[in-house]
Amino acid sequence: MLVMTFNIRFENEQDGQNGWLYRRDLVVQLIDRYEPLVLGTQEGKWSQLLYLRDHLPRYHMHAPDRIEDETSQYPTLFFFRGQCELLDGGECWLSKTPQVHRSKDWDSAFPRMMSYARLGAQEKGRTFWIAVTHLDHIGKEARLQQAKILAGWAESRNEPVMLMGDFNDDPGSRVHQVLTAPETGLFDTWQFLNGAEGPESFTHHAFNGSPQKSRMDWILAGPQFHVTEARIIKDHFEGRYPSDHFPYMADLEWV
Questions:
Q1: Angle at 31 between CA 27 and CA 34, to 5 degrees
Q2: In a 3-state reduction of DSSP, which class is residue 49?
Q3: pLDDT in tens for each of the 255 residues of the chain?
């Protein structure tokens, strides 16, 4: 089961030649190249998500009851048609008032949210929950509180869980500890295979392929899964990168 998390970088006029208009086809090409069963994107504005929906016809875009506006950057799930069945799902804001559109609390610089779905894996006849999120890049307290909301969500599921996204923090951080605590039942798929921590595992770069900051893009999974491969995808197209983040992909099997 291939699962990919991909921060596609929001549409920003200041990006110049790296603006969405000039790289959106590269994003589509990369996704088509790897064909993940489930894809979780971050930073997508509504118009960007519609572009992906229209140019990835083999995928269903999961955006349940979403209030659509061009001010929001929505974490969004896409799953391969015919190989997954949507059974349930929803989304909420990572705040004290999760059903209030664009609500934020603590020291969060921006409103942050999660989107989740209960899927049936048709090949194995099993069901699981999967969520995508994007934690705040400024507020340390906000990231911690947002992580606690996510951990509570994972703990409340009575079926296998996967959680992915851009967590804007280090693998050794308190955020990581909260999300991989025994209570959540989640483990870091990169660490499962003893992946090295260091610059080569960093997932953020400045459109130039030079790793920066940290390994902030994670896929976490429950004990019902075994990881066979974990890969930070550094593909470029004649020196052009689809985003300022490398996508991260894990191949998981049922235990």
A1: 145
A2: helix
A3: 999 999 999 999 899 999 999 999 999 999 999 999 999 999 999 999 999 999 999 999 999 989 999 999 999 999 999 999 999 999 999 999 999 999 999 999 999 999 999 999 876 679 999 999 999 999 999 999 999 999 999 999 999 999 999 999 999 999 999 999 999 999 999 999 999 999 999 999 999 999 999 999 999 999 999 999 999 999 999 999 999 999 999 999 999
* Structure-block tokens of residue 159: 């079926």
E-state strands within 47-143: 59-62, 74-80, 84-93, 113-121, 126-134
For 31, the 3-state DSSP assignment is helix
User: Are residues 119 and 84 in contact, defined by beta-carbon separation less than 8 angstroms?
Assistant: yes
Residue 145 phi/psi, 5° resolution?
A: -65, -35
Task: Give the integer Cα–Cα distance in Å for 226 and 171.
Answer: 20
In three-state secondary structure terms, 177 is helix
* pTM of the model as a whole: 0.97
